[in-house]
Amino acid sequence: MTATPTFMAREIAEIPRAGERLLAAGDAARLAEVLKSREIPFAVICGRGSSGHAGVALRYLIETRLGLPVSASAPSVVTGYARPPLVAGALFVVVSQSGRSPDLVAATEAARAGGALTLALVNDPDSPAARASDLVLPILAGPEKAVAATKTVTNSMIAGAALVAAWADDQDLAAGLAALPGRLDAALALDWSDWGADLDGAPAAFVTGRGHGLGTVREIALKLAETLRLPALGYSAAELRHGPRASVSASTPVLALRQADELAEGIDALVRDLRRDGLRVRACGGPAGTLPWLGDGHPACDPIAMLVPAYRAIEAQARRRGLDPDAPVGLTKVTETL
């Protein structure tokens, strides 16, 4: 008898259609027209956990495509230290699956009161964070029951990319996004179980990449921690060469993600150096790649597609270990912090 698929597995399988639905809606292009009409000096992005990782991806897109400096918001400055931010004229983006965490809502309200143009990237357009914002970009991922977020993460990243593509009139990025649902479909067939097997008995794991891939790197590390109970660290390939390198050993497997852009050679060089030192490295993309991959697509879109086989491998490894990937110990779907 075939086991009933977990919610996590079903939601991973829904990623291509969720992305397609979001891109077809056209909401990002409509909101981009509002942003084009404003003189925006800088942007601030607010999000925690997986939503924060989608915010990292958005940060790189805004800074590389629009040249605007981007800061990460620390909600506790508002909720704990009671210091409202000086953000007049800025774009404040809150990224949240549920839109219900009190600290994110409070930070958004404070930013709006401080004169920022506030934008919510949320799965629930009627949530408190959405109501606190001037603009709302629904990510249209549909209901997500597994505690470990998957399709809401990919759709948050796609929504941010679509917004920037329209805002910057970046036709190359728009073309990459148009091809993305098909690549997400193909990514569902990629088998990264060799990397999953590397995690057996490991006391910790590392994930590395750079630039447009950094949000994906941090997201995979989080999924290892919450779904497999495996301490995992996601580092920039540049940062991993510094202090963290001392803690990488033969017992701590490394996953390296490489997109084909100006930072690719640095990631390739790190993979070569780690392998030369006898360390276990699985790489996706480029000449050093050992994991199944689709070949190079758009460098800002490929890291989104790389999440799909990583999620599948983590879900399968959780079941092999007798863990429930839908309900990790000590976690709930909506995390409320102040």
From TrEMBL:
SUPFAM superfamilies: SIS domain
Ranges where the SIS domain occurs: 31-173, 195-338
Alphabetical list of Gene3D superfamilies matching this protein: Glucose-6-phosphate isomerase like protein, domain 1
Keyword vocabulary terms for this entry: Aminotransferase, Repeat, Transferase
Gene Ontology terms for molecular function: transaminase activity
PANTHER family per UniProt: AMINOTRANSFERASE-RELATED (PTHR10937:SF8), GLUCOSAMINE--FRUCTOSE-6-PHOSPHATE AMINOTRANSFERASE, ISOMERIZING (PTHR10937)
UniProt protein name: Glutamine--fructose-6-phosphate aminotransferase [isomerizing]
